[in-house]
What does this fold into?
Amino acid sequence: MNQPVPENELHDTRLRRLRMRSWRRGMKEMDLILGHFADTALRDLPLDQLDAHEALMDEPDQDLYAWISGAAPTPDVFTAPIARILDNMSSITPKVS
It folds into this structure.
């Protein structure tokens, strides 16, 4: 689902929109993975990487999950964004009490 993006959208507005799209995917696993990434890493991405992440958001959850889990090969165009997400996932520490 390709979302129309306003031409002169402010950077903070774009980040909030992408954060919302990351947390409201429709597949809970992807909500958690992409939502955590949006909360912890999205703000620090340079514009070219933010563009690549936004393109990734247009892909179906089932494809994203297959690429992230390694069940399917990641298309070349999404190799870098998926690698950033995987690297970010490695920083998640379990909350065990």
Q: What stands out?
A: The radius of gyration is 13 Å. The chain has five helices and no strands. The mean pLDDT is 89. The first helix runs from residue 11 to 23.
